[in-house]
Amino acid sequence: MIAEALILVCLIIGVTFNALGVLGLIRFPDLYTRMHATTKATTFGSIFTGSAVVIYGIWIYLATWDSAFMTLFIHALIAIVALAFTNAVSSHALARAAHKSGILPHPAVVDRLAEVKP
Amino acid sequence: MTVAWEPLSYWMPAVAILLVLIFGAAFRLAKGPTPADRAVAVDTVNTLVIASMVILAVVYRQVIFVDIAIVYAVLSYVSTLYIAKYLGGEM
What we know:
Order of helices and strands of chain A: HHHH
Radius of gyration of chain B: 16 Å
Strand content of chain A: under 5%
Number of domains of chain B: 1
Shape of chain A: elongated
Oligomer: heterodimer
């Protein structure tokens, strides 16, 4: 009962944050604000939907001792870790490439990357 | 000890909402004014596909979906890095 409620709460949090990230992707005016909304919210939401699967695997494994569910939760954990690390690095590379290709944040007060000598 | 097997009760609506969100990101993919916007939209679609594939592994009781999601995550990482190198003028 506790595990089922925990799974439901994790799924609701994850889907809500994914929805907020995509809403920011559609509605925000600038590339950098879109990236700010999308990367953080989508990574956070996907971590929560994946951890719902992890909790489900642990729960059914402790109830039935079927080793397929242990495989399920370990692999879901690996998927979460891979997603969390690769999303951050790839969004950093994309923001840096967009800045180098000439798209500047319009009302920027401080732009440290433009001051770096090439 | 018996466990209630109800995979369709709340897993499948979550996948349905994620599918709607994928179409919302595809709107920005079609409309985005600069190529960097489209790259960000592709990255978002990849993340949502990975999340929904991990959930679909529970719905269809196939552990292999999670392995495919791991490979998809690594491939989307590599492709996004190459798109970033192309956009930055380093290729």
